[in-house]
Amino acid sequence: MLRVWLILLAFPALVIAAAAAEEDEDPFNVDFFCGWGGYYRPMEWTPVEIGISSTLTEPFAGLITVSAQQDGLNTMNVNYEFVLTPDIPLHLPLVTKFAFTADKCSVRLVDKERGRTQWSQDYELWGMETGSRFITVVNENDMLIGLVGNRKFGLLRLPKQSKCLSNRGQGEVQVGDKLPRMVPWDWTGFVPLDLLILYDPDWNLFNTQQLKAITQWISNGGKLLLVPGSHPLAAANPIARLLPVELHDLKQTTVPAEILEKMGLTGGEPEQVTAWSLVPKSEANFYKVETNDAGDCLFATGYAGFGHVGVLAFDPATMTDRQRENSASFWIYCIRDVLEYGNSLSFGTTTGAIRSNQVSRTIQSASDAKNEKGRPGNRNRFEIGRAQAVNNAVMEFLYQGIRPLSIWWVILLLITLAVLLGPVDYKLLKRFDRLPLTWLTCAFWIILFTVGAYYGVQALRAGDMELRVVSVLDGIDNSEHAWSTSYCGVFAPYSDDYRLERLQVNQWWSGIAPAQQSIWQQSKEIAGRRIYCFQHDGGNLPYSIPINIWDVQCLLNESALEKMPFDAEVQRQGDQIVVNVVNESESPISKGRVLLSNNRGIVFGNVPAGTSKQFSIRSHRMGIWDDYGEERYRQYYSRRGRSYNMNFKKEDAFFAQGCLQRTQAMSAYLASGAAVVSVEYDRAPVSFALKDHTYKRNHIQLARLVVFPKEQEEETQK
Predict the structure, then answer these.
(1) Owning domain of residue 205
(2) Each residue's pLDDT tens digit, 14-34
(3) Do 158 and 126 share a structural domain?
(4) N or C end of the chain: smaller count of CB under 10 Å?
(5) What is the pTM of this model?
(6) Where are the beta strands (DSSP E) in 606-692?
(7) Which pLDDT tens digit goes with each residue over 235-251?
């Protein structure tokens, strides 16, 4: 009987304990991945994949927050809204930025209705030992190749059999692969890549958003190597519409021995392969093809917007086994043909000017000692790239609203305080015979000095609120390829939570900050500023930007444009250049120039808003981007103390983060025979605004258009 009573008494306790355990059990299971195969470039956009599943029985409307340090000053907080359906796992493709030595990434799940945190975890990104790190840094002299699809024909062995060469010397080649379902949904997820390889991808596994993201990235300067393999590429596929060639039927063809040897394979005997018929499009500009004796195209490369693509007509894995030992040489040939622009013009005319091929990276066999210099980068040190170095120059303009006080003002204030607390206080109290009250008068002088110093410094340093913007608009004539990059600086005369309005849904905002040339693991910087953004498929928009008093918050905004604000037509009549400029903007063009091959060009005058104007000028020798040489780059590596030399040139923006890849493409277009019409607008409006604030505006708007000149013969004078 006693046992029965004990069981009856224990049963409710067991039920209560089981219920409590069930309540304590976390209903969410969250998976977190970032980078391309775990590789990332510091201070550049990086893809983040989050998988969520739950044991909930009701739909859950939530908000996921990803917070990480993005550079030496800023921490980006990305918020993404979602609805989780019971028994259906959810995949969230996000994009953010990670600083070098960013120690952690915080992820939180918040109940959207109640505002309560339902799940949170900090992921440690950076360990003291390189082998224990969650993500791996790709240095400036390293190459990162993204791979989607098959991994055949020695592709995964490529890092051990090749090396990267750039103006920074020798580096490593890294291959980061992804499954089709993990491919980013936004073009910013491909930014860290030097090249994307789509090897026999199953197009049915991609969604439209992913394919559109790939084409946008290529349009903005990305590079693609496509191996269609056994999966046909439909004409309606966004990638098919972007390529300079059309893929027709599969057929048997021959790869001659000389082409095999040219591609780094074993010659002697031809190879029989099944290949897609590649036919150049009628509107394609400046493409190159490798054909056999029958005229079948085996490998084609060409421009796609500001990007460069290569299409391999056959699957190399279907060749005989004798070719496998040279697979690395084959891939190096194909990759190098896509990465390198042939005969690109130098940026300027001075000795030692940087060529576009040297600004970017190329690939070489690991056994080839030619052009070898330098050594692989140190994983515990990161040297910023060209674009980030030139960011420092652009920020010199953005920081003009704030300058450090002269040391003489500090000395004057300290002397004033000493005089007030000493002789002035003593003489006044002695005159009125109140020396015992010195403790009270000292407090009065300190309060008076503090108030005076506060408002005095505010008068000297604060001034009016100001928005400074440098924007670059780039496009290609008669195409949909148009992009905008804006560098913004907001000077805050007082501390507040600042908000932007009139934002476009396709804009990608992030913070930028001055960077030193070398960043060491031991010298971690604490990011004291925060930027809060809402991210959706296609954009990352800030909704809260806290700025402290007398400070400047610098922001970077990147987006695709619907159309350029002007159009142009260029004709060559010998040395005479005729350019017709149509200004479709509401702002006047103050000046412009036409850049041609062989470092020649013309300068033309103003074009009023909403009008067209024709100029006929004899061409003369002209530096493409105002003699942008190696020494000019070195000026903009920030040191510990800011110099404020104010030697900012407007053309600096062409080489800054978000614009450099398009400038490289323009140099290649020029070398191929195209022209670039570059204009500057006068008092152009800013596309966004600061909500509920009155402020000054200082906007520099530059626009560049790639056009294809028409040749005209001069009429013979009789």
Answers:
(1) 138-383
(2) 444 444 444 456 788 999 999
(3) no
(4) C
(5) 0.87
(6) 612-618, 620-621, 675-681, 689-690
(7) 999 999 999 999 999 99
